[in-house]
Amino acid sequence: MLTVFDSATIAPQDRLEAWREITAASLAPTAIDCPEPEAFSAHLRAVPLGGAQITSLAYTALAARRTPREIRRSDPEYYQVGLIRAGRQGVAQNDASALLGCGDLVIYDSSRPFEAVVSADSRAESVVLQFGKRMLPLPAKQVAGLCAVSLPGAEGIGRLLATFLASMADGRTRCTERDALRLETIAVDLTTAVLAHHLERDNPPLCSPTRTLYLRIVAFIEQNLHDPDLSPVTIALAHRISARYLHRIFQQHHPVSVAGHIRTRRLDQARRDLADPRLGHLTIAAIARRWGFPRPADFSRAFHRQTGVPPRDYRNSA
After folding, report:
1. Hey, what CATH topology would domain 3-198 get?
2. CA–CA separation, 121 and 118 (whole Å)
3. Per-residue pLDDT reduced to its tens digit, 207-226
4. Phi (first) and psi of residue 294, to 5 degrees
5. What is the pTM of this model?
């Protein structure tokens, strides 16, 4: 679903709060401050790309911080790759910091605190690609070393990724759902190639047939979390493999079982919806059904076990 936000349609005194809400829902919750709230202006356009998303943003001076509090509130476990298209932005994460200008690329991790700043003398424009961290076939420790590091996007292999992101953000590419899934793979592959290059790995890790199947299965799960009948058996049938082989693939590539992954991702999505003020009209039971929990009592127990608080208390505090 295409998401579009334009602050020009909102009263000046409400724009900053509206920006906090739309970026929390489309990207990840952050604490956002602005030197002149009533002079603030911004635009956002988010386009799904399979299980990934490409978001084009433009905004005036602000400071955004993703603190441990925001991470506890919601962590989609994404890598986010940014392309700076205008203005200058400062970014910091993992004890690293960089001043980014037009054409620069940068990666950051939604599970770790970070800070981004745009000064008052420029309007910033950027494109952000986000995707599940498990989709990137590079060691997390190595990727952490590249977070908040300026990577050139105007030359070499970085130019391929930057051109792809800019083209998708400009909205000139019309595609079907199947096209989007293929483009998601291309986006992750290009990101892998860029990061591997900067990690001085001449040969980016190629996906084996087993890992390719694993990534397809993970994408299938993301697309069907709403289905209460989603289970290892239905997943195996959809991919024409045995349930035993499915479990073996997850043992090789995933830290938890198939059922555990489904439950965690459903609860992550439900937690995000409970914290979204735009969904305040939905009951907790409706949100539970939306993410594959037909029985509210089962949802409440599972949610309490994962977060430590009942769904109603979590919604009230968020």
Report:
1. Jelly Rolls (2.60.120)
2. 8
3. 567 777 887 888 788 888 99
4. -70, -25
5. 0.64
